[in-house]
Amino acid sequence: MPAFSSLARRAARIATVALAATVCATAMTGSAGAIVNGTDANGRYPYMASIPLTAPTQGLADGVCGATLIHPRWVLTAGHCLDPEIGVVLDGTVRIGSDRRTSGGTVRTIERTIIHPGYGIGTGAGGANQDDLALIRLDRPVSEQPVRIAERAARPGTPTRLLGFGSVADVDTPQRAEFANRLQQLETRRGAVDECAPGRAGWLRLCTVSQVPGAMACFGDSGGPQLQKGRGGRWELVGTTSGDGDTDPTCSTGPGLYTSVPAYADWIRQTIHQNS
Questions:
Q1: CATH of domain 2-274
Q2: Does the predicted TM-score (pTM) go above 0.85?
């Protein structure tokens, strides 16, 4: 699935995630096209962030990964969005709180990046990315309101929403991606484990199914947020775009795979505390 697909399988693994990306250009291999067949975001998402990047070895000159503001000075993204081994080169900044990919919001310099120690591209069950999370410390706090991390992922069937600036064209390689300039959203639901390819989904990786035909995250959406409604009807962060939920490299053909943020909440909090 887009960008996420893990840059996908390294050669595909380096010839070619979730998505971002994020999705980082899928961030490279994912399928959540800026969400292919998504719509312009119709709400305010001050915690939505984007990470400009390139991937010269993959022919990507103007890519992006998604990210989510979870603390005034920290954003959460996918591990593969920061992985130099798959060719990712960051421009050194993060844009927070804008519904435009290249303008608006608050821009901060990246001070430090921390990839989950267990991260691996395509090393998880079923060929999925493993522990596909990373934290970015900004050089200064921002005034935008961070999103709350959900206490737990809701049961299968629960409505969710994806956000991203990934490819709006349904493609199978980052080079052909057409990145959205305006933030896109897609209505989805938490899928059952068996709705994704065997072995890919589970407690750590959430199977996500589009409620719109022929739609899903794509290259460039990697690292971006999957939201679910919490108490009081407010959006909470439940997933981070990681990769494909099926074995077809085209974005819109099947479910997406999202790293479960609640499952890593302790690591996230401890990492921020130890590096503040």
A1: 2.40.10.10
A2: yes
